[in-house]
Write the structure tokens for this entry.
Amino acid sequence: MPALLWLFFACSTWEPVPQTALDAAYTDCSDGATCVVVELGCCDSCNGGAAVAVRSDQEQAVFDEHGESCGGAVACTEMGCAPLTAECNAGSCVLVEGSF
């Protein structure tokens, strides 16, 4: 295995939190709270990162707790994908993938 590839895998320990694992305090929108998309990775969710849908008043707390620390130069692919939006569905914020 090339040395740089090995170094990437050896240093890459961040695991994105799945939407279903978020605490309800972050995702409950039964009181009319607005939902937003939070990108958690150094790269966006279309290019190797991850995104979750949370209450707008919990956006920073979720990123602080689950976001990837991005130091130095980060190389991300530049693939295009349908935009993500967040909406309240059955009292919980959910991601919705748009279309082109």
Notes: The chain has three helices and four strands. Residues 14-97 form one domain. Confidence is low (pLDDT under 50) at residues 1-10. Residues 43 and 75 are 8 Å apart (CA to CA).
